Fold Membrane protein.
Amino acid sequence: MKTLLKSYILQVSRLNNWVGKNTAWLTTALVVLVCFDVTQRYIFKTTSVAFLDLEWHLFALVFLFCAGYTLRHDKHVRVDVFYIRMNARQKAWINLLGSIIFLIPFCVVVIYAAWKYTMVSYGYLEGSPDPGGLPARYIIKGAIPTGFVFLLLQAVALLFESMLAVLGEDLSSITARWEDNHDKAHPEDENAGKNKVFVVMRTLFILVGTLLALFSFLGIDLGISLPIKLFILIFISILAGFPVAFTLGGLSVLVGLAVFNLDFFYLLSLRIYGIMTNYVLLAVPLFVYMGIMLEKSGIAERLLETMALLFGRLRGGLAISVVVVGALLAASTGVVGATVITMGLISLPTMIRRNYSIELATGTIAASGTLGQIIPPSVVLVLLGSVLNVSVGDLFTAAFIPGFTLVALYFLYIVGFSLVRPQQAPAMPKEEVAAFRTKGMWKRVISAFVLPLLLIVSVLGSIFAGIASPTEAAAVGAMGATLLTLFQKKLSLPVLRQVMRSTSHISTMVFIILIGASAFSLVFRGLKGDDYIIELINSSNLDKYTFLALVMLIMFVAGFFIDFIEIIFIIVPVVVPTFQAMGLDLVWVGILMAMNLQTSFLTPPFGFALFYLKGVAPPEVKTGHLYRGIMPFVIIQLLLIAAVVFFPEMVTWLPQMLRGE
């Protein structure tokens, strides 16, 4: 029996690996296709509806057909506050129970609903509603159940794998997935199960979850409405460590089946199809592709080295260089985690070697690395634009002034620190700076800056000027990043494969979370949850600013435990109708949310940016250094958020000016 289970795991893993690796090539095809379409439109003044259809077809195939592949490599995001401290057997139990309770039911319901949806389309041979579009629309709709069949097969493999792991079976010949991704990355956690604080927290978590489930089963009224119970159960469940997308979707499906019926989830198929056809969301994989490709190009190393020598004789010059490079990378990629890690690997050892204060070094790197949350082309802003139903271009232009004001405030703090404690932010040795200035300084500066600046101008300039949509600009940026990597002699077939596979993993993770969040939103609204929240606010006499502050506080705290993608897809859709009813400017709200999330990711003790940096820091860098170093930057963030609240023109002026209002 065990041999049969191992054989199934191996064969299904091979199947999803083959499907995923081949589907990943579509990311490069998507970049080329959108760039070709842009060229046709703006140079030859022609376009093709069929090309536009093909673009979102490729986009949809990537995240649907790579879902099982991404699960196979454990790339679906988890809230690992507890999970990361578990031993291999405990993790296997989480994956076993999560597969049975959440993942498999979620897949089965989506397959049923999407198959029915596809058959309706096939029944009348649905084609494109636009003249000249691709025919046979039912084929791409059929990708929904097909993709979830691949995911279901891998879910069953995960179930079998977890069963064998619980029984103590050696699975090293099949996969070393969890050990590679968690245990080896965190060797200090091997004895975490014996930590008293961890045991107490985990026990409380299990107890609260069990009591809520028991009370719901027995029909005991706790004075909490069903939508709020669902919301609470979601947050408790995702803390267990099972992938967020499947916890969201699975729990929502179970509640939906209990309250409604199976046919209710036909509406989920409509929502998934809406995600597939959303042209704005197509920008996400393109920006991710651009960011990963730029990381491979080695541009950050050249920029930092050149900037450090350029500001060499200025005290704190190396720290200022880190901020400049962080801002440029943010304006080039919009990807936060990669920026923090890259900057940490490149600049932290150098700053420590140059006798910089460890606190100043770590604080500067972590803060600069998160500028991609707020400086366009931020992936956060792209997703917020979709959920808030506002123009991504407006969000990009609105973020421009707050983003670069933040950079200026970072500069001022570093200069002030250098004046007060000059020995902790020393200038570079005269000899190095002199050698730099006598050996083609400006040629080196220009060569380091011209290409990245051209990329930034081409991406952001085209959006701000209204020449191109964010999706078109993202494709041009992705192509530019590829050419830049080629120019730097860093592009090869293995590098291209890495970029495509990483893009497919990240994009799939984002959009499967969005599908899970759509299931949650569907059930939540079916239970009249949004009406309940509005009624609750009206009865409590909260004014719109108090309500906004409450939402910001919830998002800030949630940012300690879950990534921005889950926050945007879980919390924001619930409160958007209330914001609209209160008459708040959603562009202004979106910028406040992005700044709030950035601050949350920097704030001790749970800020994600601190975890990223600690993971690549030298041994002499302790957690206390990170906490002390980041707090001045957190205070700067909070002051700027307060300024944006009291002076909303910082956000609204530029978009209005560009629109001629």
Remarks:
- DSSP finds 31 helices and no strands in the chain.
